[in-house]
Every structure is written in structure tokens, then in C-alpha cells.
Amino acid sequence: xxxxxxxxxxxxxxxxxxxxxxxxxxxxxxxxxxxxxxxxxxxxxxxxxxxxxxxxxxxxxxxxxxxxxxxxxxxxxxxxxxxxxxxxxxxxxxxxxxxxxxxxxxxxxxxxxxxxxxxxxxxxxxxxxxxxxxxxxxxxxxxxxxxxxxxxxxxxxxxxxxxxxxxxxxxxxxxxxxxxxxxxxxxxxxxxxxxxxxxxxxxxxxxxxxxxxxxxxxxxxxxxxxxxxxxxxxxxxxxxxxxxxxxxxxxxxxxxxxxxxxxxxxxxxxxxxxxxxxxxxxxxxxxxxxxxxxxxx
Length: 297
Fold this sequence. Notes:
Layout: H1 7-18, H2 34-40, E1 43-55, E2 58-74, E3 85-87, H3 95-98, H4 102-105, E4 111-118, E5 123-130, E6 148-150, E7 154-156, E8 162-166, E9 172-177, E10 180-185, E11 192-198, E12 204-211, H5 217-226, E13 232-236, E14 239-250, E15 253-264, E16 267-276, H6 280-284, H7 287-292, E17 295-296
Antiparallel strand pairs: 1-2, 1-4, 2-3, 4-5, 6-10, 7-8, 8-9, 9-17, 10-11, 11-12, 12-16, 13-14, 14-15, 15-16
């Protein structure tokens, strides 16, 4: 028992871990407290940690083995019981230093509370706290949104016509070419928040964030794309992401769609550029600038 942290020390360890100053460009900065985790969690489960381990095929991904599991909350009823091994989300900050090696050994035998995301291929957690801490509060109903087109919040970034666009209700911002629209779509099964702009060649630059929950269309699409054998999986903003390339047929010619999909605590993002073939090279010169300028609030 002398190798185990005291309860007070353990609480301080994880409190400091989640409140470290992080760039808002990384998905690990989206959740900084248990209350924020509860607001974005698809599920919450408690369990006694028995081990942490890594698969040889995925050495960068840690899983936590638990026993005496108890489901405390599920946003969407699960048809199956939680596995005794919980994967650690790519958006869990500093997972290799806090959940592996000597630090992880001090967690063995501790009962912890895990806050996670539901995916078709796994259930990963992005935050945890000692089970002895007070449970964060839950609203009886989730916030609802109406279909609305907002007045754009524009912050010029330079003389090239680009500006930083901010989603009024989506809690994110990104650099956009030219004028843009800011839309909340509340009429779907889950609300979505959209920023859309057009460059001088007519290409559409778009970012969409859809909240997680029952009937999430973007969540289902991400799961489907991610699980394909030939999926182009990368790490983006600290999250597991998958890139897509599609050709769209129109009566007046073909368009090329470049997309990037990824899950974060609370929902699914899609970044996309749709351009006609004639101007694909010119518009795609700005892909990295557009994608990498996304920040979370």
C-alpha cells in the first residue's frame, strides 16, 4: 500500500493534469474539468483499475482494465455491456505520462470515474476522476437549438481577404476566405453548427460540428469511414481523424470534395473544401491554412 498515492494526492494529480494550460488548437483542451466532461460525455462509468496496457499493433494507444464496473450514465442506451478494457481517447491529455509506467502503477486498485465517447468500434474515455469525488451535475434536458442564420462575427486576418470566422453557438472558430455564413441547424436529430465561405474561384470552404447523441448522422458517418480497411487515418489536433476524397457529378461538370472527419468530446467535426476541377489546384493551396486554423473554445 505504500506505493499507492493518498486520495488527496491522487485528486491533485488529476486536477492539475486537466487544468494545465493548453493551446485551444488541440482537442485535449476541450475538457478542463469534471463538469465540462459531464456536459460532453456519451457515457460515464466507474470501475476499479486493475492494469493499463498497450497493444503491440497500437503502441501509442493505452487501454485501462477495470473490474466491478458500474454504468452511471448513458446518453444513448447501449445494446451491450461495457468492456472491462476501456480505450483511452486520443483527446485525453498527456495519456502516456499519466496512464503508463510508474505513474499508472500508482493507480492500480483505485476506483475511478471515466467519462467517454461512444463509437461503433470502441468506447474511449477522454477524462477521469477519483470516484470518491462528488459527481458533477446533470441538466434534466439538453439545450435545444433553433434553425438560425447569424450575423457573421468577422475578424480580419490580413490584406488577402481572409478573416477569422467564429460560430456563434458552436464554440469554435476558423479562418475563412471572403464572406462567410454562420448557421445553426437545430431541426436535425442532433444540432449542428456550420461556417461556410467561398474563395475567389468559387470553391466552398466549410466546417460543420454536430453534437453527439442518438441519431447523430455525422457520428455514424465518421464511424463508417473510420472502420473501412482502406481508411486514411491521421492525427489532427490531437484527435484520430480520417481524410476523404470524392468526385461529385454535376450537370455542368465535376467537383472534387476534400474532407477531414474527426470525433472530439461532445461531437463530430467535418472540415471540407469543394472545388471544380478547373480550379482545384489553386483552391487547394489553402487547404492546410484552412484546416490548421481551427480552434476550440
